[in-house]
Amino acid sequence: MAERTGLVLEGGGARGAFQVGAFQALQEAGYRFDGISGTSIGAINGALIAQGDFELAQSWWSRVNTNLLFDSDDDRLERLLQMEFDSDTIAYLASAARGLIEKRGLDTSQIRRLLSVVINEEKLRSSPVDFGMVTVNLTDMKPVELFKEDIPSGRLVDYLMASSNLPVFRIEPLDGKHFIDGGFYDNCPMNMLAKRDYTNLVVIRTLAPGRSRKFDYPDISVTTILPAQPLGSILGFSPRYTHRNFKMGYRDAMRTIYGMKGSIFCINPIPENTLVDLILSKICDNSEETDARQQFFQHTLPSVARALGKNAHAPCGEIIYSMLENMALSRDLDPLEIYTPASLAEKILAAPHIFSKSEAKNIWGKPFFLDEIGKKICRMLI
Fold it and tell me: Which residues, other chains included, contact 61 with Cβ-Cβ below 8 Å and sequence gap of 6+?
């Protein structure tokens, strides 16, 4: 069987910006895909990629905002989505709720117009890339999985809208039937490509609400790119959150592709023996004690590991990268950048430690110990 690589894009509304950032990292790393499946915003992103217009997808996401998609007040809706309630937003919510009831949901005509501009059905159909999407036929109460050849000519945008119909949207009938968001059946349609004999899948998750079907194909290689931090509301289409989610997607994909270290921060590691040699060279430079090496590796490093809640016998790199991340978090450094051990150490040394109240009351406890030892280790890395 020939190797075939597929891309699966989970639904998630505004969280779809994460997928665009992740795809950029995949593209830069040389990934090429024979097929793409997606649900809701994953189907829209997938269509743009499959038709060969990834740059257009990037441009679209850089401009998108709530006002562009819905007839709404962008600032007040954003405050509501972030659970920021005041008299102004509560009054807006009451008015919006009345409008939703009267109009049978959010008007999506602006979304349809935008899709009609960026989706090129002819290019998608002529592309060699497979493309599939999921929706749910509410009228007949059954799921619908469609590849591009199953979609009637001229109806691609209609079916993309059908795949993205959240319950809060005003649902327009399609051929006399009503469709709702495909996430009610399968928000992460891996099985669609598995059934077409794909051998490798790259799955970009958003962790949005929705159902995911059981995947039982043990012979298929699956690489999953997950967000390390929450991506926010599925309706939070503000430029600020879109930009953040794009950068998170790029960072988390880079971590997955290249095996970078860190759970929130992304640290491009150096080989373990190079790291050890670097530390040893600084110990020899900065200490006249003959047992300096033994002191560091048998006492200092295990103490750091225990303070971090890690195994005292963990590899040197594992302990140091965990320590760097801990220190970076305590200094409120930007987690969306990609660091080397040296560049992160420099940032840490240049920034003040932001002590929490509990830490300030116990400066001789673990946080203070970690910070003092950590700064010494940071100097060794530069």
Answer: 16, 17, 20, 242, 246
Q: Closest Cα to residue 185, out of 16, 43, 51, 36?
A: 43
Query: Domain extents for the chain?
Result: 5-70+106-258, 266-381
What is the structure's pLDDT at 105? 64
SS3 146: strand
> CA–CA separation, 369 vs 329, rounded Å?
16
Single pTM value for the model: 0.85
Q: What is the mean pLDDT of residues 24-28?
A: 98
Distance CA 22, CA 4 (A): 20
DSSP 293-355: HHHIIIIIHHHHHHHTTS-TTS-HHHHHHHHHHHHHHHTT--TTSEE-HHHHHHHHHHS----
Which residues are bridge partners to 177 per DSSP? 174
Q: Which amino acid is at 314?
A: A
Q: Which two tokens stand for residue 124?
A: 């998608």
* Half-sphere exposure at residue 361, Cβ-oriented, CA atoms within 13 angstroms: 3
Q: State the average pLDDT for the chain.
A: 87
CATH level 2 (architecture), domain 5-70+106-258: 3-Layer(aba) Sandwich (3.40)
8 A C-beta contact, residue 317 and residue 261: yes
